[in-house]
Design goal:
This protein is 53% helix and 13% strand. The chain is of the alpha/beta class. It starts with a helix and ends with a helix.
Amino acid sequence: MTDYNQVFENNRKWVASKLATDADFFEKMADSQTPAYLYIGCSDSRVPTNEIMGLGAGEVFVHRNIANLVPNTDLNVMAVINYAVVHLEVKHIVVCGHYNCGGVKAAMQPKDLGILNPWLRNIRDVYRLHMDELNAITDEHDRYNRLVELNTQEQAINVIKTAAVQKSYLAKGYPIVHGWVYDLKNGLLKDLKIDFEGVLHEIQKIYDLTGAGMMQKDNNQ
């Protein structure tokens, strides 16, 4: 483990390296941020957000929690989404899970995990929604990784359910919501290729928050 004081020495070296290539780097960073991406990922320390995307400071607005969840009752993630969409006007929202996720694995165990129970129930709900598919996978590791993918997909759908995303897309044509999975073993990102427009149209039969009358139109047909 890196010594505590070494962190500050590392920081000074990092500052020096940035100034060596761009003397105005920190002044530009302090001025404003205009990220094109909102990244919602897992808190796992093995997933360095900017690095895996090949993007620098100021290009990604980041929110992380255990197992990259987007519960509608979590004011933290809801506030992040609202700020990113309404004020930063991000063009893309990425929900990124990762294989070998400890949170997803914990949710697969028949154990009382105390304060984690209500949080992990969101993942168990994903399992319930996709129980037939998951139970048909005989290899436990493969089932575990498939749940990682399905959890990421469902959390991306939860993002699409938000009023901020629906209203912004109706008015401006963005943001687009994506689901990715990061593979710790090879460093590669997998695009789950979520059909954003198709999902948006389908969920608005129930979750229309735009005031555009999607629910009423479908009910009158």
